[in-house]
Amino acid sequence: MDWLFFTEVTLAGLGSGALLSLTALSFVLIYKATRVINLAVGEILMLGGYLFFAFVTAFGLATWLAIPLAIAGGALFGFVVERTLIRPMLGESSISVLMLTVGLGSVLIGATELIWNTDPRALPDFMGQTPVFIGEAYVSRKIAIGFVVSALVIALFLLLFRFWRGGVALRATATDQAAAYSCGINVPAVFSLAWMVACATAAGAGLLVGAIGGISPTMGVFGLSALVVVIIGGLDSVLGALIGGILIGLVEAWAGTFLGGEYKLVTTFSILIAALMIRPYGLFGTVEIERL
Amino acid sequence: MAMTAHAILDISNIEVVYNKTIQVLRGLSLKVEAGKVVALLGSNGAGKSTTLKAVSGLLALEDGDVTSGAITFDGAPSGALKPHDLVRRGLFHVMEGRRIFEDLTVEENLVAATYALTGRKASSGRASSSFDAVYEYFPRLHERRNGRAGYLSGGEQQMLAIGRALVAEPKLILLDEPSLGLSPKLVEEIFTIIARINRERGVSMLLVEQNAAVALAVSHYGYIMETGKIVLDGPTERLMADQDVREFYLGMAGEAGAKSYRDIKHYKRRKRWLS
Ligand SMILES: Nc1ncnc2c1ncn2[C@@H]1O[C@H](COP(=O)(O)OP(=O)(O)OP(=O)(O)O)[C@@H](O)[C@H]1O
Ligand SMILES: [Mg+2]
Q1: Torsion of CA B42, B44, B49, B54, to 10 degrees
Q2: pLDDT band at B271 (very low <50, low <70, confident <90, very high)
Q3: pTM to 2 decimals?
Q4: Which domain holds residue A254?
């Protein structure tokens, strides 16, 4: 076995795993506060990539300005979606809300195809090209940056949920909205904030994913892998998103390289099934005392 | 009630309708004087919980509206305020069925209630000194503070529900059936503490109960409601001496002797409090 090659594959797997974790974080944030599974995460990720693309190419903005604007665009989108689509659905069955997010994803894909057509595009380079070497092992610069940024963001959220009482407010709201109100928690603000931060996170992930693999109206399928990650890690667990993402990233890299590309999905879903059989609420998810 | 005393809560002639169609309260009025415990008694479905939800604003979450009348809390009309704003002004509603956050730890439940201090206290963080007060009233919660609240016993969950109210340092607590599903011994323990909280901290309370005996024992004043309005009210001693209340509410035998026809009709009318 070529250890250097193995190390390089592993590092690449870690890199894409971190991006999966970051995207999974977007699922987790929304689920934690609102118990909604947002199946449009992949498309919001795509939106982030296209916003950046538009700001740079159509408006000629500098990349350092286009990055925060694309992320803020994600937050604004989250705010509007929560206000206009999600909040009126309060109290409706979770399946209706789920379908609503599926519809939202389709609308986003349609709009993107109308504006930018279906061609895949490369994002303007904002990371530089110089490769990174860890020891002797080569890592693409973009993957290395993607990894570091994802790791920092996830670490930040882990700390926030550990030490900031807003984390408690989020979970309290998810458990029982009326009781959260009765404790003085501003429930609508919690909903708004969760959607804004989650969509900003997804848009940011879209920048990183787009920088590595380019953007296209189909890039939202990345959200599907992230969904697998949260199901394995636990829908309400930031730590689960982190570890699940790394796990899937590594397994896909190893399986894709050493077994062949067709084994990638097979192994991923085998892990999914195994995980569901052992712990249906996810490896790190909260055990429900009462199931619906 | 004397008009001169300061009323922390004044409900005046309110009507409440659910889903724009089902009228539940029909001109209900009551007052809570500052510093007092007031009992609101009535049978299942009389509208006791609805009254509390109208006051705390949680009615809106169930598609209920106050269609007429006025509610004044601490000198200001409360109708336009959101539930969380009312809490922050010192009105805490301990809902029926305890409604603790089961997935959170005991202490996290208390942390959640510190949001009630928003805008009132500089340090509304985790190390709030009011936690100590809660643990002093309920030492059992201290033992289990890092355990998951969902695993507490029913009595402990009720203690936690009241503990959250204490953290919020309210002026008025609306308590909905704290005795629900608890053993007589636990009921006594919890009501002893309810009385202590009122005495030691000067918190006013509006106490909804089906267990009339235990509620009147800690109250200064009582109201009895039936299908959406008050049918009887008075100071606790007077209510406890009232023949109807004794017979149909406190489950005590009436005075010996044959009853006149009038008494029987009376009985039929009052009996609905019990059914
Ligand atoms: N969300 C709601 N929507 C429609 N009707 C409701 C709603 N909540 C309560 N009601 C109705 O209003 C009436 C009063 O209910 P409420 O819960 O206030 O009674 P209660 O006096 O608290 O009874 P209990 O002692 O059983 O708790 C009942 O007939 C009930 O069916
Ligand atoms: Mg009730």
Answers
A1: -80
A2: very low
A3: 0.85
A4: 3-278
Decide if A291 is inside a domain: no
**Cβ separation of A183 and B83 shorter than 8 Å?**
no
Judge whether A290 lies within some domain: no
Quick check: CB of B46 below 6 Å from ligand 1?
A: yes
What pLDDT digit, counting tens, does each position of A179-216 carry?
Answer: 999 999 999 999 999 999 999 999 999 999 999 999 99
Give the CATH number, domain containing residue A179: 1.10.3470
pLDDT at residue B259, as a whole number: 41
Once rounded to an integer, what is the mean pLDDT over residues B129-151? Answer: 93
Q: Provide the β-strand partners of residue B233.
A: B223
- Amino acid B123 reads S
- Of A172, A181, A184, Cβ closest to residue B101: A172
Number of domains in chain A: 1
Is A126 a domain residue? yes
Mutation pick for ligand 1 pocket among B49, B177, B210 (CB with most ligand atoms within 8 Å): B49
How far does B217 lie from chain A, in Å, by closest CA? 27
ipTM for this model: 0.86
Alpha-carbon span A112 to A108, nearest angstrom: 6
How many cross-chain Cβ pairs, A to B, lie less than 8 Å apart?
A: 84
- Express each pLDDT in B162-201 by its tens digit: 999 999 999 999 999 999 989 999 999 999 999 999 999 9
Contacts of B92 in chain A (CB under 8 A): 182
A141 is a domain residue: yes
pLDDT per residue over B87-107, tens digit each?
999 999 999 999 999 989 999
Interface test with A, best of B61, B101, B105, B126 (most A CBs within 10 A): B101
Strands (DSSP E) found in chain B: 7-18, 22-33, 37-42, 64-73, 76-77, 91-94, 172-176, 204-209, 221-226, 229-235
Tokens 């380019």 — which residue? A214
Ligand nearest the Cα of residue B224 is 1
Architecture of domain B7-241: 3-Layer(aba) Sandwich (3.40)
Residue A61 is given by DSSP the state -
Interface touch B56/A182, C-beta < 8 Å: yes
